[in-house]
Design goal:
CATH superfamily of the domain at 158-305: Hexapeptide repeat proteins
Low-confidence stretches: none
Shape: flat
CATH class of the domain at 158-305: Mainly Beta
Largest sheet: 12 strands, mixed
Strand content: 25-35%
Strand order of the largest sheet: 8-11-14-17-20-25-28-31-34-37-39-40
CATH architecture of the domain at 158-305: 3 Solenoid
Mean pLDDT: 95
Helix content: 10-25%
């Protein structure tokens, strides 16, 4: 594992050292498991107190602090952002040498940059183009006429159907299938007749796709994922869906066909979105929501069927009061019944 001084780490992060800038750091760990020589981080006062009493040699903190224990501090504008930047220093990704494994099958018509790594058991189809620094780790399948931009990384057992287009620095994790047939059928003479899906999938620059994700190719045209969008594990994206730039889509989301999602939108876990909808920019959809209507930009929706968060919260609060309301109504009915009985008897 590489070793850095606190000063070197601070320089990489644009931060400031308080304490011994020459202390050597050779690891990064959470406060409760840190050992001497480790760097840890604290994004608020509670975590700082815990980190200051840990065995770590230095703490990455937001803003200027004073350490009660005398630990070295690396002060930055935002400790969480710095955390994401510093981890690759201590845990660099494995380097894959250029070249093709003897067990890889690469079509003669494929154009593969000499700096690319084609791992064991990979299959690269006809007329495929693979850019500089691409890594296909093992048993990846790249269908005919697909294009992989520079520095794409595909983890083991990824399948790209023909004509898939991946931009630069796209990452695709294990078990993902890109470009399978869209789910399109028409009911004809008592049977479901398949509609041929002849489109493609386009993943723009800096998209990351989690494990076991399925992105279906379009019936016509393209299913497209915008630049910088990050998709978690076990997500289903149907044919002709368009997702904008820098979106976050959490695990087990399902998006039905031809829905269009704007930029900087966040879709939490297990959300289901019906087809042919328009979801605006900077929308947030809460976990386990069922979306059946268009959502204007900038709104927060939740629930099933999903509604604006303020409307849904009022309904939930009202629902919590229903048992007491039913009890009171029952009591009123009993009192009215008793009065009616007494009046008849007199």
């Amino acid at each position: 594992m590489p070793t850095f001084t606190a000063a070197q780490v601070a320089e990489r992060l644009g931060g400031q050292v308080v304490g011994d800038s020459s202390v050597e750091l050779h690891g990064f760990a959470a406060a409760d498991s840190a050992r001497q020589g480790d760097l840890t981080f604290a994004e608020n006062e509670t975590y700082f107190h815990r980190a200051d009493h840990s065995a770590a040699s230095a703490i990455l903190v937001t803003g200027l602090h004073a350490s009660a224990s005398g630990k070295t501090l690396i002060c930055v504008t935002n400790a969480r952002n710095a955390f994401a930047q510093v981890l690759p220093l201590f845990f660099p990704e494995p380097v894959f040498p250029p070249g093709r494994h003897p067990s890889a099958v690469v079509a003669d018509s494929a154009v593969v940059d000499p700096t690319a790594h084609i791992g064991p058991g990979c299959v690269v189809g006809e007329r495929v183009r693979i850019g500089a620094g691409v890594v296909l780790q093992a048993q990846d399948f790249v269908g005919d006429d697909s294009v992989l931009g520079d520095h794409v990384r595909m983890f083991p057992h990824v399948t790209l159907y023909p004509r898939s287009l991946l931009g630069r620095r796209v990452r695709v994790h294990s078990g993902t299938v890109i470009g399978a047939d869209g789910f399109g059928y028409v009911f004809d003479q008592g049977q479901h007749r398949k509609v041929p899906q002849v489109g493609q999938v386009i993943l723009h620059d800096d998209v990351e796709i989690g494990a076991n994700v399925t992105i279906d190719r379009a019936a016509l045209g393209a299913t497209a994922i915008g630049k910088g969008t990050k998709i978690d594990n076990l997500v289903q994206i149907a044919h002709n869906v368009t997702i904008g730039e820098h979106c976050i889509i959490v695990a087990q989301v399902g998006i039905a066909g031809s829905t269009k999602i704007g930029n900087y939108t966040t879709i939490a876990g297990q959300v289901g979105i019906a087809g042919h909808l328009r979801i605006g920019d900077q929308v947030t959809i809460a976990a386990q929501s069922g979306v059946m209507n268009h959502i204007p930009e900038g709104q927060k929706w939740m629930g099933t069927p999903a509604q604006p968060d303020r409307v849904m919260k009022r309904q939930w609060l009202a629902a919590e009061r229903l048992p007491e309301l039913l009890r009171r109504v029952g009591e009123l009915e009993r009192q009215l019944a008793e009065r009616g009985t007494g009046s008849t008897g007199s």
